[in-house]
Amino acid sequence: MTWGACNVLAFIACFGTFTWAMQGGLFRKTSHASPGLTLIRVLGALSMAVHLLTLILARHSNDLHAAAGFVVYMSALTLFAWAARTIWRRRLTLAFAEDEPAHLETCGPYRWIRHPFYAAYLLGWLAGVLATGQPALLATVLAMGALYVHAARQEEGKFARSALNGAYTSYRQRTGMFIPNLWPRKGAHP
């Protein structure tokens, strides 16, 4: 099997799983979809189509890029699966939901990063850039990344307004938003 075929299959595995989760397979739905969630869905669908078409049409002259893309796709899928397993019993709501947080998850990948699902999605988008060697796909990484940062900040605002504010403040000091915080602030307790 070629790297191109491996990357198409990896893309389908990643984004098929991500889509399943957003359509009610993993996350709890709230009463209505917010405009932010609708934007993620629409822009995400368009970006997926562009990535898949680019992957199918790409001429893989650089096996190192293609292999790196495959590794990043698998990393995205692994991080997503780990986060999904961690929250399976106490599921989170979808992006931009206005619910009040009921608990603070600090196990699994949440021990190191506050938003492992968004981090997994970003890895998936970045994998397409690496796999194809097409820097134009960076536009999708930046666009989706901006939406994920906005959603993450909105979620963090919900914690700040909730009874979990104190615990979340301490948690935020010792973890990174999308990548591990290698230098936690002094006084942050695990």
UniProtKB/TrEMBL annotation:
The chain crosses the membrane at residues 6-27, 39-58, 64-84, 120-149. Keywords: Membrane, Transmembrane, Transmembrane helix. InterPro entries: Phopholipid_MeTrfase. It is a multi-pass membrane protein. It comes from the Bacteria. It holds the Pfam family PEMT. It is found in: Endomembrane system. This is Isoprenylcysteine carboxylmethyltransferase family protein.
